[in-house]
Amino acid sequence: MLRKLQSAPSAGLAIDAEPASGRKPVPLHRRALRSGPVQLGGGALAVLVLVALFAPWLGTIDPTAIDPASSNLLPGTRAEFMSLAGDTFQHLFLMGSDSLGRDIWSRVLYGTRVSLTVGIAVAVLAVAGGILVGLAAGYFRRLDGVLMRTMDGLMAIPGILFAITLVAAWGASVVTLVVAIAIPEIPRVARLLRSVVLTIREEPYVEAAIALDTPPLKVLLRHILPNAIAPLIVQGTYICASAILVEAILSFLGVGMPVDIPTWGSIMAEGRIQFTQYPHNVLFPGAFLAATVLAVNILGDGLRDTLDPKFSKRGT
Q1: Positions of E strands within the chain
Q2: Is residue 2 situated within a structural domain?
Q3: Quick check: is 17 in a domain?
Q4: pLDDT over threshold 80, residue 7
Q5: What residues make up the domain containing 283?
Q6: DSSP letters along 217-267, please?
Q7: Has residue 287 been placed in a domain?
Q8: What does the radius of gyration of the chain's CA atoms come to, in whole angstroms?
Q9: Which residues, in sequence order, are CB contacts of 145 under 8 Å at separation 6+?
């Protein structure tokens, strides 16, 4: 009789471990790599990352170099260009030039660096801050009210207005821009994680760990946070796309990056005056901006469909 009781749990676990079809379940990371949206969005984003990394070699010319004799050239025009050192050489303007004779192709490539750096940095910083606040608010009931009311106060401030104020106070720089965009995104991550923590906290394995006097930090890091990674990854992709758009808007308004650093927003802002005569000054950086945001959003949708149990498909 004792042997039967001891063998019952193992038999039950064996049945649960194997699906009815007899196949082993596919791990989440492999299922994500097989997803069409993840492959499409991730592939496009990987190409943009390579473009950003190899911008000095792909650009072939200094994006800040000015040559008034080469101003307002149409895309595909080959003309003489005078460098800052005074050397003259033949140069192919793939995307034309702006009113100051700067190469749009080189400026767009270097703008990819800025946009991706800001987007990824904002996503990491916002998710990190949201994790700290969300875990504390969801697990420690005494801190819940204070932290969430603080987050509600931050959400009441328009993100663009907050970023403009912070940049005006601290000066235009990459660090200032990342912090200014990330702070308004922290409450969204915190509220999402808090709701997940409140659900996971009632699970039997978490209650068992608490009953065994497991330190709260160990419970949070070992039992709760690993089960909340999936929605955080998805939320991080959406924050990255939003940060790229906000950075472009701020640069377009002239309160983003310093004027000597080319960004997609500043390129479009400089070309909007002559848009009717030379639309390439706006269309090319706008196309790169739209493609980047679209790729990040497609990647986020694919990860959501794969990692979120409500959207994931069985039998893959």
Answers
A1: 77-82, 88-93
A2: no
A3: no
A4: no
A5: 26-307
A6: HHHIIIIIGGGGHHHHHHHHHHHHHHHHHHHHHHHHHT-SS-TTS--HHHH
A7: yes
A8: 25
A9: none
What CATH number is given to the structural domain containing 194? 1.10.3720.10
Please report, for residues 41, 153, 229, 256, 258, the alpha-carbon distance to residue 192 in angstroms, rounded to integers and kept in the order given: 24, 16, 11, 29, 34
Q: CB under 8 Å to 91, separation ≥6 — which residues? A: 60, 61, 70, 78, 79, 80, 81, 103
Cβ atoms 100, 66 nearer than 8 A:
yes
Amino acid letter, residue 37: P
pLDDT in tens, 44-87: 999 999 999 998 888 778 888 888 888 888 898 888 877 666 67
Which pLDDT value is given to residue 178?
Answer: 93
Model confidence pLDDT, tens digit, residues 116-138: 999 999 999 999 999 999 999 98
Q: Residue 16: pLDDT above 70?
A: no
Q: What's the pTM value of the predicted model, to 2 decimals?
A: 0.83
Length of the chain: 316
* High-pLDDT (> 70) share of the chain, %: 85
Distance CA 184, CA 192 (A): 14
Position of tokens 């990819």? 112
- Give the number of other CB atoms < 10 A from CB of residue 128: 14
Domain count, the chain: 1
Mean pLDDT of 155-178: 88
* 11 part of a folded domain: no
Mean pLDDT of 157-185: 89
